[in-house]
Amino acid sequence: MNSGVSTMKKDETGSVHDVVRDVDVPFGGLFGSISQQRVLQELVADPYSTYTPRDLTELTELTEPTVREAITALLRLGILRNISRRKMRPVYQVNQDSNRMVALMFLRYAVLDDEYSEDHLIDAVKCYHESVHSTSLEIEPGEFTSVMYDSYWSIAKEALSGEKAYVAASAGV
Amino acid sequence: MRKREAMFIAWLKRNRAGKTLNVCRRKLRHLELSEDVLASFPSGMICIQRQYGEEFVHLEDRTWADEFAKAHQVMVLHHAQHFKQKKYLL
Q1: Is some CB atom of chain B closer than 8 A to the CB atom of A120?
Q2: Contact by Cβ (8 Å): A78, A98
Q3: Domain range spanning residue A73?
Q4: ipTM of the assembly?
Q5: Is A23 inside any structural domain?
Q6: Looking at the complex, does the CB of residue B38 fall below 8 Å from at least one CB of chain A?
Q7: Which of A44-58, A83-97, A135-149, B36-50 has the lowest mean pLDDT?
Q8: Does A64 fall in a domain?
Q9: Which domain holds residue B49?
Q10: What are the residues whose beta carbons fall under 8 Å from the beta carbon of A38, sequence distance 6 or more?
Q11: Nearest CA to CA, how far is A152 from chain B (Å)?
């Protein structure tokens, strides 16, 4: 995760004063101004697309200077990155290595679940878990023992029925 | 094409399962989709309602939305695979 402290040099994404200011801000300044939150919400809603400042201006219904300010803050936090080679035409993409972004996606599901009394957050967490541990065992240990227990039980039942049949047959004789 | 539609549905779901038609049009344009996409989804999944004189696109079946997004791998960020690649390439 790119923390604010690791980028402690004066560059286009922020000054040293900005970094020092962010240290004391709750959640590293993630939930900044309302405009920053609106831009962040738009990015959380669709973290797969690429955005120009104009796209974000249209989608968030904010003014361009406000969006640019929010973008600067999000670049500094390592949530966004500029993927354009042309300096005058920036194109931004969500930094998919950002753990904060993943956490915010889960927060989005949690908010919806609380509002509508649903449990889609669990599905999202499961989906994430599957994507992270895609090579892990498909059968959980609990399931595996239950499968084994079932097979033993079926064998025992078969043996018992066979024995009963033998007894019945011998009694008949 | 279907992936972009899934991205739109996931976007709508994460925007409290409803947005004004104008904002939806902008998002569809951003995803390079036509407005006809709204009519292409199975019936009963999304609907357009008029509230306070404004048209809203409302996601009716949020469970279907999750399934649709999951099928096209746009439900949660799949940064882990990217991370693994980077880690093992180094």
Answers
A1: yes
A2: yes
A3: 5-97
A4: 0.80
A5: yes
A6: no
A7: A135-149
A8: yes
A9: 2-89
A10: A60, A62, A70
A11: 36
